Amino acid sequence: MKVAFITYSMAPYRTKQFEEIVKINHFDLSVYYIGRSVKTRDWKVENSKLFKEYHLTGYFKLGNHYLLYKDVKRVVLENDIFLLGGYNSTAMFIFLFYIKKYHKKAIFVMDGISPKKLAESSSIKFLVKSKFIRRMDGYFVNGQVSRKYLIKNFDVNPDMIFNQYLTVDVDRINALTAQNIKREINKKFLILYSGRILPRKRVSDFLKAANLTGIKNNISILIVGSGSEKSNIQQLGESLNLDISFIPFIKNQDDLFKTYGRADCLVLPSDDDPWGLVVNEAEAAHLPVIVSDACGCALDLVKSGINGYTYESKNVNELSEKIIQVYNAVENGTKMGAESFKIISKWKFSDSAHSFKELINEII
Fold it and tell me: What digits encode the pLDDT tens for the residues 296-316?
């Protein structure tokens, strides 16, 4: 059986995910990238040795895509099942046309959606999206919010929705950070933010909340990443007199994961985040997590009072309270980080591969 995945660009977590799918299912897999620029976010990504990769080209530049793509018909005729990663490119619609014309199978791949976007409006964009999504034979989606979104807005059959378990290399992160699980005596409580520093990430909320805790002299903050808001965040940290340090975006995954081993907690304060893979990473590193309710992963990966907390996005006072609660729990020996690892240990690449196998068996 030949399986083709049509996606925007390369990503380290995606490569690992599909390598595991190939190992467990023994498919002949080909990945076709439709982005004009293959790599994004400066990730260090190596080509896979377990599946074939191609960069599709076309005519008439349209942002980082093309309006028309070459060889779509040939690709469709050469494969049996297609995973379509999104609907924001003409390539996806062109592929779907030929997939249906030649009676092949199409699977919609959804990496997540912010809970804030659970309800769709009846607009032209929605109608186009609806026609695309409802023509799929199966759905490979990430987490509970994605599942609810498809059922609520597009009347998708729940039996055809399978969890993608999109994740990170849990075992690798665990191995790299295991030696740092025990906290150093008299060390400040280090809270980590990892990701792009953009307005919608609301990193400023995190700093303001830390300032309100009343224990800021016992806290240090580490910001890992880059983005348009970095200078503003640096200025805010200085004005609040916080113990804060910055590390630019880390391209090497192992070096990034080792950084998690230095922390005691992760905060993800985004106001609009389809998922939040940094939470997967933090939990694999045995960290408690504090995540806004606007992050797609909140329902699946955060158990309130067990491995961390969720809070209402933009609510700085509530975020401050959650920081204090995690600080007190960890200081009093509560094993929130161990609970995080238990949760993420059921969200691995192998889980993704087995779920995909169930999906394939269902649609064929």
Answer: 999 999 999 999 999 999 999
